[in-house]
Amino acid sequence: MPHLDIIDLNASYGSVGVLKGVNLSVERGEVVSLVGPSGSGKSTLLRVLVGLTPPSGGRIVVDGTTIDYRSKSSLKAARDRMAIVFQQYNLFQNMDVMRNVTIAPVQIKGRQRAEVEADATKILARMGLADKHHSYPDQLSGGQQQRVALARALALKPEILLLDEVTSALDPELVNEVLDAIRALAAEGMTMLIVSHEMAFVKEVSSKVVMMDKGQVVEAGPPREIIDAPKTDRAKEFFGKILRH
């Protein structure tokens, strides 16, 4: 049974169809990278998974249980299992790093502060931020802020981590420190769906690459097949363009 099964998924913004019959299965511990041109539906797919954009058709199944996005209890159960990190860090500027990481588990999930802070200390150490507990976001580099955002998501103890272009707002020299953190999570067996334009990283870290265009899956498979030897004309065109630069 797949950890996550996306079946004939549709979503729209107003009258504009953004996802059109998307099918995708993700096994536990897989790292699945979503690639494709801007506007192809990659980020929308992640937003639908966590209930930020409502689906208009199809099913999303986690470990055999279908999520009903119209039901508050079903949506809450889905969000207990998935966490998303966006391109913008969205940290609370008036809170230090420790408070940014612990506020949701304490206030939303009702966990004990001492337990959450102990977990957060370990997570921040894994992110290379052991000495930044009491720093505020404006005292951190962009790469450090994005690693705090990753730590904040991990503090929710998700089974599935969704990463939406988490390096695209960073200066080039800061990208690798965030990619290193994601590499470590992949090595630990975290199930991840990653939207990224960092093709060398996608090829290295992914167990599966999914190319999307115009709201549909064009091609999916192991990275060396999809990136190096795509079968469809659209995938050949896309990778041919981006790999020349």
Tell me what you see in this structure:
This protein is an alpha/beta fold and 245 residues long. 39% of the residues lie in helices and 24% in strands. It has nine helices and ten strands. It has helices at 42-49, 72-81, 97-107, 113-126, 142-154, 172-187, 199-205, 223-228, 233-242, and strands at 4-13, 16-26, 31-35, 57-62, 65-66, 82-85, 160-164, 191-195, 208-213, 216-221. The strands form two sheets. A six-stranded mixed β-sheet has the order 6-7-8-3-9-10, with helices on both faces. Strand 1 and strand 2 (16-26) form a beta hairpin. The longest helix is centred in the C-terminal third of the chain and has 16 residues, at 172-187. The N and C termini lie far apart (39 Å). The mean pLDDT is 94.
Helicity, as a percent range = 25-40%
Number of strands: 10
Largest sheet: 6 strands, mixed
| Overall mean pLDDT | 94
Strand order within the widest sheet? 6-7-8-3-9-10
Chart the SSEs and their pairings:
Blueprint: E1 4-13, E2 16-26, E3 31-35, H1 42-49, E4 57-62, E5 65-66, H2 72-81, E6 82-85, H3 97-107, H4 113-126, H5 142-154, E7 160-164, H6 172-187, E8 191-195, H7 199-205, E9 208-213, E10 216-221, H8 223-228, H9 233-242
Parallel strand pairs: 3-8, 3-9, 6-7, 7-8
Antiparallel strand pairs: 1-2, 1-4, 4-5, 9-10
Helix pairs in contact: 3-4, 3-5, 5-6
